[in-house]
Write a structure and sequence with these properties.
The structure is a homotetramer of 399-residue chains. Chain A is of the alpha/beta class and 399 residues long. Chain A contains eleven helices and 19 strands. Chain A has helices at 16-26, 42-52, 61-66, 82-92, 106-119, 133-143, 170-173, 177-193, 295-298, 301-314, 322-341; strands at residues 8-12, 33-38, 56-58, 72-75, 95-99, 123-126, 150-158, 199-207, 218-225, 230-236, 244-251, 254-259, 266-270, 287-289, 345-346, 365-366, 369-376, 382-387, 394-398. Chains in contact: A-B, A-C, A-D, B-C, B-D, C-D. Strand 13 of chain A pairs antiparallel with strand 12 of chain B.
């Protein structure tokens, strides 16, 4: 006799992200199901529901949210619709899961956060990339001390540009590549440096190099955290060669490199006989291709939804909360501002996190001098580079 | 109101494979659950049940099989216990899932197959490695024609040797590295060349190079299939550096390389601060390490159990049946015999599959000669290597 | 009867770089030879000369420079000795090859440049990393248009810190990781964006995160070039795991990734039996190691010296001139200033290069709207994202 | 005043290998020069000489060999011309360098060897692939004990087939892919297991799977050496995706993986704008490409010729002698015979090497039982797998 809980989901939005979310929920021995889909278009709603075996679809968002069977609403709509829609979910008292980014600005995200917290409903922030199996394993290693104190996180997401029109419209999206991709990278960096590590300030470059749009199609920015660690964010809508989704982490005792998408141990050369879908945002279907095994698993969707529903069942917070989404928005605000002012800009955030200690320096001494570096020579002797703490004079000695 | 089916499982065996199986079933939003564990040791049974939140455990295999809540029995016991145990599962009329290899010999596997088919119960062969996401994607590409006709499959599994004593005892296991690892590799090769592609004969080398045991600790063998394709199987219990689990496939129009475990896009360097479990059969915990993200997913366990339970629910055969397990055993018989007789040995199998066409040769002609090769020169001209079909004379011409 | 020219070299400096340079010159069928070595220490000079089969050594730099057999002087001395030493080489009228960086500041580099140009001697800037075979092949591809217009170059050099004391002393070196490693990365970026592409301004972060020194041990900076392309420079003296020497280039039509040192197709796992020198700056001698085949070739030394001596013989400029060294210094000046002022700083350079066109945007139109993106749908139809040039409205259409 | 020796070379043959050899000799600061080229075709000889700046060319092989300036003759001709041509070089008393394979059979190779040894001239076997920088570094590691005793060498060379017509004609070549590519792989294996390790017997599969020719286009064979080590040779003329040139070595204490050509740290994606030559045997010029930096260096040509000329100058044997070429031919004879007889065939060689000890087994004992495996458990305890030397009973114990 089964006593398993199974959540019934309203999926708002039937674009690419709706497909990914529903594929995840309905794949393998999927326990939780989408029971109603909302699309502004009757045609797309019907096609979506047929594709995924969803019993009902509607063009009325209120009907979807208030569907009596539904206990959880997934907001997979364009950014400019988040605030209004979430208000309705809060009013309905349903569990809320929101796609990234939470809002178009920190202020909008804060408004959303306040609404949800006032209503007392469950709120989960669907930042999938911190849930990838590789990221989860890496975070566990970092927490276990495998790489010492984190000094630097590079998070990079680059591809030839998004599929839907509204992403390219900065009025609806809130920006360009920074808003679309930067939110992923920022949250990856926050997870690695530690969520109690306050983001202090941001220095950004952004430009529109290739596409005929108003928003930036490339940006690079540095986030300086309280510990001194740096998050290096690289986003691009003009990358050629597929989807470049890589993270690198350096620490005082080690380093991590993650490639999520392009070099994952599966390589296929074809002269071009079969024109199938190889992977999200692949650019060619002949030559050397690098497919991903289980895309929704590798991109973190599977573990993300597991965490969300487990959190609802257990009455606990999920790993990624709406507050996290809000912090991400404030960092993007600072990045977009810095790209204009051309100087470091502070992150203006209502901080709830703790404080983080500075990156450790454990001074070692040799005859009253600080050891800068200790090196093993081929002949077995040790060479020390020494710094005189009073004069700053640098010398070396072989022991 | 949930109408999900959820299977209740008896797990026979609490060794490493029992851990992997149960971890898989109970992970993420696991719908199917282990409700009773059987171990010959009360102590190990108790620890196992506590580790995985299993309500009951027993040292009586009959009690586990006949537990009234149980509808499915997983046999994760040493090879020499398969035949007897499966007889009991068949008598109880429960669904049967058996770990690899099915038997110690083709004859034993046939006996098991007959028992299960007579009883009319569901039988699934738990060959996880053909279910890895990378393998599944690759098989789909091959079926879609991406690499043309398959000519060669290399399947390699190598590590420093198994964890439990009985593996090393050829009387209990039925052999050494061939039986332990060869069964995986053979079934990978069969999937890529097509299961209707009859294995004709085997040529094998096997030797005990390093370990003080009677069974082989290294073997290499070639399986020739009806189409002309070759399966190249490499197994070793003396590999240093972790678990080397790679497949390569060549076809007339392409090639595939799969690395399941050592180079999958996650790389970690550590000076050694954290002594955690990195991955199955990793040999070090400092220096450059190559952890796997989600081990049970990457090794195919997740998709394997999904297929098994979906097959039970749908009343269809799973992707891997006990008949497949039997074919694998007959190929291993031929390999072990060939290692003794030092010549090709036929595969003696009661064949139920179909027939496979030979690897395609599409002859192209130029002025009455067969085109051996067509090459594009840097200056844009084409160079043809030609074979005179009557004289066998080889010439070239530039067009 | 041989008519080969063979240059006779004075090697000033017997540190690690002197070893690399001499190893290169004397390796394989080395045609050009070091005939005298200068070291401040009699002991190190003697050991060096014995190591490399050099006939003479001296502790007097003037004697080395003015050695009558010598036609070419290699300056491999600490940065603070470049200016004075180069004055002597100029006075002697010998061919001059100088290790990187040219000076400690742009002003010092300019002074050196002026001295050399006044003397009319040959001057070569020994920036090896733009001469690596991979870089040379990549530059040829870029010039041939393989990746379109370059938009971004990431050049990264990171390791646990230099071997000699003087590098750590910013008074002698002129700075820390920026001066030591940034000069390489900047010149790599300049080569990829084109040397006629003027560096306009720099935004930098630099910090001393780990080592007990005054100079920066980590820095990241962006160089904006006239075309709009960005050079992203990452340097670190606190990296763990060996020497991380990678470049990435993105263009409007392609992308390049180069790994010079850590993942080059040679992988070795060892339980630690042999304690040999594996590669420059490797950190361990057990576990997975990634040696480099021919270090001096992979690091560009071989092709660099070939170009230098061929240039001397042919009376032409080498690929890397002292002017290039000067430009690099001015960019580092801007980086170090920006790290202080926390805003973009202009590059103050006496520019001799040409001008570079902006990154191309080739507008495509569809019914009066600009095509933002063209995407092939799985069903073979094309989806266009369109931008109304008057209203900025973004729409899509499927054809 | 230069006292450098510089060899003057006659290049016999102006095909692809003649190009590679001459490119190598004339590249960088090349000290040794080709002074005369021989081609059967006046036109090809002239084009070749112009391409490489060679002063003279001829269609008379005797004129080339006896050219008075020439001290060294490189035989880069089709296999069926080796014996006759080498007789002429021996008669002329010149230094001889011969491309691979030495002969078409062991008998022919022996005849060549006898002629050269009788004449007392220098003879070098131009097996480039054992001279690649990666191979040289790896061989040094193996000799230093880094991987313990070698148990297995996989050497693989696979590409879509050779460029010249005569390769495809087994009468002229002496066979197909085995003769063309197997000779490389065999000598790689011999170098790793040690040249004193006598090849005992060979088991081979060969087939013509794709091309319309009489010779084999695919083969796999195992060479068993005296120590028990296995050389696993894989050759193919039907590989798609470029040139697959990889070696793997396993030992009792480690493992080595070498990728010479396809994954060497240089990756380029292009939409196809520039149609240049990317690398030997690359198949596409768009999509992801994997060029090689310095092809003649990576393929070993540079270090091979350095060794040859240094050996001549020093009056010592080169690393690869004609005797090595002869041994390789005898192993290929056994392979081709085994492919016919379908059983192991002995290697019939006039052995001059020494003897090799068996792969080491260092037995460890625990309370009278042999330790099969020692494993560290997560809780820090050790688990031993034990073998009772009298009964063969396998047990385990946790300490």
């Amino acid at each position: 006799m089964s006593t398993l809980t199974s959540h019934k989901v309203a999926m708002l939005g039937t674009g690419l992200i709706g497909d990914f979310y529903t594929m995840t929920l309905h794949s393998q021995r999927g326990r939780d199901r989408v029971v109603v889909a909302y699309s502004r278009s009757e045609e797309r709603g019907r096609a979506f529901s047929e594709r995924w075996g969803i019993p009902r679809h509607t063009t009325c968002v209120d009907d979807a949210i208030n569907d009596p069977e539904v206990d959880t609403v997934v907001v997979g709509l364009p950014n400019d619709l988040h605030l209004e829609t979430i208000g309705k979910v809060a009013a309905a008292g349903k569990n809320l899961l929101v796609t990234k980014p939470l809002g178009r600005t920190g202020a909008e995200a804060k408004e959303i956060l306040d609404i949800v917290e006032s209503a007392g409903i469950f709120g989960g922030y669907l930042e999938d990339l911190v849930y990838t199996p590789k990221t989860t394993v890496s975070l566990a290693s970092v927490k276990a001390g495998a790489i010492g104190d984190v000094t630097w996180v590079r998070a990079r997401e680059a591809h030839p540009g998004p599929h839907s029109a509204w992403f390219w419209d900065s009025k609806r999206a809130g920006g360009g590549a920074v808003i679309d991709l930067g939110c992923h990278c920022i949250e990856i960096a926050r997870n690695f440096v530690g969520k109690d590590n306050r983001p202090i300030e941001v220095m950004a470059w952004a430009d529109t190099l290739v596409h005929p749009i108003a928003a930036e199609d490339n940006a690079i920015f540095l986030v300086r955290f309280e510990s001194g660690a740096i998050g290096q964010i690289e986003v691009s809508w003009t990358f050629r060669g597929g989807m470049d989704l890589r993270d690198e982490v350096s620490g005082t005792e080690g380093t991590i490199r993650i490639d999520h998408f392009l070099r994952t141990g599966l390589e296929l050369f074809t002269t071009g006989g079969s024109g199938g879908y190889v992977a999200e945002k692949a650019e060619t279907d002949a030559g050397w291709l690098f497919p991903v095994g289980d895309e929704v698993s590798e991109l973190g969707y599977v573990d993300m939804f597991s965490d969300m529903f487990d959190a609802i069942d257990a009455g606990r917070a999920p790993r990624e909360t709406l507050y996290d989404g809000y912090v991400v928005n404030t960092i993007m605000d600072a990045a977009l501002k810095s790209a204009q002012t051309r100087q470091w800009e502070p992150v203006e955030v209502a901080w709830r996190g703790g404080t983080a200690a500075s990156i450790k320096r454990v001074p070692e001494y040799h005859q009253g001098r600080t050891v800068v570096k200790r090196e093993l020579l081929p002949d077995g002797r040790s060479k020390l580079i020494l710094n005189d703490p009073e004069t700053g004079e640098i010398t070396d000695v072989v022991l």
